[in-house]
Amino acid sequence: MNPRSCVNIHKEWDIVGARQLGREMAKEIGFGTVDQARIATAVSELARNIYLYAENGQVCFEYIYTNSQKGILMIAVDTGPGIKDISSVMQDGYTTSGGLGAGLPGVKRLMDDFDIESTVGEGTKIKAIKWIR
Amino acid sequence: MRIPILKLHKYLLISIQTEIDDQTAIQFQEDLLAKIHKTGATGVVIDLTSVDIIDSFIAKVLGDVVSMSDLMGARVVLTGIQPAVAMTLIDLGIHLQNVPTALDLEQGLVKLHQELGG
Q1: Of residues B21, B53, B91, nearest to A13 (C-beta)
Q2: Can you tell me the distance from the alpha carbon of B71 to that of B99, in angstroms, rounded to the nearest whole number?
Q3: Domain count, chain A
Q4: InterPro entries this protein is in (chain A) (predicted)?
């Protein structure tokens, strides 16, 4: 089994903690500087969403291996209000917080695989993978 | 944490050396505008050479501080954006159009000098 490392997100500084852990783990498994920056930025966006909208949640990382590839999986989970309309939050420029609305569509572009599940009143779970090229 | 702002003649120089969290970014925004007001600086260089991540929030704060300073009559140039940061910003869909940039601090100062007419 792959060990999983997690950072709890409930204060603003946890966003920094999460992206530092993400970057360290990315570096450790052999990602180059550009991909490390992509991963750290994606973590930052996901952690900030938790902090802004859900107040409480977790960002976890684990290494994943297939026969031909290795990479990093990040999972951002919260027990916040959930997202009613996922297609609108995946549009560039959509925001309810006065931000740039770059977060989720940006994360999707920064990472290789992206999956989002959300239930209104229960929370949101986002999984994203980056493979080493 | 506060980001130091240095005054050099009529310019302000900032080199961001720390990991920027949201609070630091917002505090910096306020500090810079206060300093422009106090010193009457006409040009500002924000050097990002040591910054290895700019996410959408930090990008918004930086873009805003450029516009805010502009309203006050001070021209801001961002310098030293790392290749990895530039690539990541474009992936995020953030183009920072209308934000003056230069390769490094030296060229940033040259740019200000040209734009402000010496």
Answers
A1: B21
A2: 14
A3: 1
A4: HATPase_C_sf, HATPase_dom
